[in-house]
């Protein structure tokens, strides 16, 4: 029996006991990795360090940590520490974040994302590899580990939405992390751009919300509540428009300032393209859409108000093929 690769995102707002239970279940079901987002909830690195103590084999990753909330040296040091605690199971997922959060939360300005990500990644790689970090225009460091040697080749993934960042991920990273990208965008933009950067599309984590449930109403409400904030973020708006959902953006904008009306303006067509909702067969069919589009490691995330345990079981069946 051959197994296809499948990963999941641990819900960041649930209790540690619940997160540990889902991590242990994912490992038992044969998931490739468990991942944590870095939002206004628990710190992803600290949570993953705790989950490393409750698991034995499954990989652990940030999906993703924004580069502006830690210096490159601090990021490398944190990643190396979690990797050491987990016995070499950590994957560092990095992203740009958003101007509203990086400025409002951390007092940091996003200047030129592509150039700054390229510089940041070069310093992180140098620090992890025991080499002198190169000087950049935005980032500089003289940090070097003393008495501790990180694992060679610790994997680094980049989050990408725009063609330029996807190309950079293909060129320099070990893979690309996607979120809220419809399968058509994965097929038509992500795979070609990553391929141009590395000459072949390889290890990518494509995140998709999934939920098992007989009643679509609560599932749609959960997805729309999550998507609402992304429709207000410029990087995601540009990607949604490029994916062919400009009408959803226009409807969302027209419904302002009524937040509930904005949520309802996100069409079922968009939700169904992005998500895997319904019974077990629907969940597996949704995951398969992403595989067909070129995603090599679909990243299953929870839908608010749904039973994530049931979703993990349903999605895991997709990984087993004759």
Overview of the molecule:
By secondary structure, the chain is of the alpha/beta class. The chain contains 14 helices and twelve strands. The chain has an eight-stranded parallel β-barrel, surrounded by six helices. A two-stranded antiparallel ribbon has the order 1-12. Strand 2, helix 1 and strand 3 form a beta-alpha-beta unit. Helix 3 crosses helix 5, helix 5 runs parallel beside helix 6 and helix 9 crosses helix 10. It is globular and about 55 Å long. It starts with a strand and ends with a strand. The mean pLDDT is 92.
Indicate the topology:
Blueprint: E1 2-3, E2 7-9, H1 16-28, E3 33-36, H2 44-52, E4 59-62, E5 65-66, H3 72-85, E6 90-95, H4 99-106, H5 113-128, E7 156-159, H6 163-172, E8 175-179, H7 183-198, E9 204-212, H8 216-230, H9 234-242, H10 246-254, H11 259-265, H12 268-274, E10 276-278, H13 280-293, E11 297-301, H14 308-316, E12 320-321
Parallel strand pairs: 2-3, 2-11, 3-4, 4-6, 5-6, 6-7, 7-8, 8-9, 9-10, 9-11
Antiparallel strand pairs: 1-12
Helix pairs in contact: 2-3, 3-5, 5-6, 6-7, 7-13, 8-11, 9-10, 10-11
